Amino acid sequence: MSRPDSDQLLLDAEADVRPSPQGAAARRALLARPVVLLIGIVLASVNMRAALASASPLVSEISETFGLSSTATSLVTSVPVLFLGVGAMAAPWLGRRFGTEVVLLCALLLLGVGIVVRVMPGIPALYGGSLLIGLAIALLNVLMPGLIKRDFPGRAASMTSVYTGAMIAGATVAAAASVPLEKAFGDSWEASLAFWSLLAVVAAVAWLPQVLIARGRTGHEVRVVPAGSGRTRPRSVWRSALAWQVTLFMGLQSLWTYVLIAWLPTIFTDHGMSRSTAGVVFAFNNLIQVAGAFGVPLLAGRMRSQRPLVVVVTTMVAAGYTGLLAAPVSGAWLWSAVLGVGQGGAVGLALTLIVLRSGDAVTAARLSGMAQTVGYLLAAVGPLAAGAVYEATGNWTLPIALMLGVCAAALVVGLFAARDRKV
């Protein structure tokens, strides 16, 4: 089986939409200023994980300020992930109705507002801001890859690298800088988290010219009927067993990742590591994910069956979790590296399976929407459940053991999803 073209890995939420002449003219105007577009993409991508990664090293301070239990504290991470799934359902419709550029600008502004609301006094603000952050990131998650595929079809490989690299860089810097920023702002975790709203505002300002240039295209798209379908509606992906297998693999790998986003620094600090060191190790875990995220999709496209890769990535994540159970501090850098490669490889594989299991671009877009919606809703359970079990037992043994069970389930469902079949 030949490797899929690099642009196929960028799923377009508007794959079944054809621009009218007005829309095409607006896009040509945008591409006449590629530097402006590139700057906007980079700055938007940097924001796609920073708001989540910046909160993890400060979880203990947030908990102490509000007197929250571990279960309630986990909602700071679970609520955004939950609304990643909710937002994923609305993003394609919003993109078609108002135009991708407008929705992305609004998402960045919403992200900045959510970050500020999250640090305002009161528990409702903490959770309400987290909700807004999740919705904003969901819009960026769904629409950004399609925009890149639409506007850079001949440079998809390089733009994928820019997009993914900027996203990982944002998470890495935010995780490493959270505790130092807290100290620089007089031990204020609120100021440390609020700082990242400035990044969202800068990205929104950089995106504004694209909105102004593309202002004529809203509402000028037409629906496209898939070739060969006649008047028969295409089969719903929600009725496909294979689609559910792909979706569950997406959800389970997201679940183990968001548990780490929520609790990895806390696991280290609970075993005696300083908060600043825990933040740096967590940042390293984010950074090393790029190795798996780039390498695994390239290998997956060269295979008829991706089962060996399913075994590799799930085994690496299981090995990393086992290391956290056996020697969390002395082996922290090693376990973070093993987990990082496994995490990056798993999400890269999950996204690639969506393409490889789809027969056309429209099916791929629909399967992507299904996988992101259900997957993030499933993933939102992870941080909450891990926090509740930790609170009930007083240690991380059982929560980590449950994550090993998630790895086993992902292995089983992944082996089915990796078969050489089409939805």
Q: How is this structure best described in words?
A:
The chain has two domains: 1-224, MFS general substrate transporter like domains (Growth Hormone, Chain: A), CATH 1.20.1250; 238-423, MFS general substrate transporter like domains (Growth Hormone, Chain: A), CATH 1.20.1250. With 423 residues, it is mainly alpha-helical. The chain is globular, with a radius of gyration of 21 Å. Helix 4 (70-98) crosses helix 10. Strands 1-2 form a two-stranded antiparallel sheet. Helix content is 76%, strand content 1%. InterPro entries: MFS, MFS_Cyanate_Porter, MFS_dom, MFS_trans_sf.
**Architecture (CATH level 2) name of the largest domain:** Up-down Bundle
Q: What would the average pLDDT be, to the nearest integer?
A: 83
Q: Strand order of the main beta sheet, please? A: 1-2
- H-E string: EHHHHHHHHHEHHHHHHH
**SS class:** mainly alpha
Counting DSSP E segments of at least 2 residues, the number of strands comes to 2
Distance N to C terminus: 17 Å
- The assembly state of the depicted protein chains is single chain
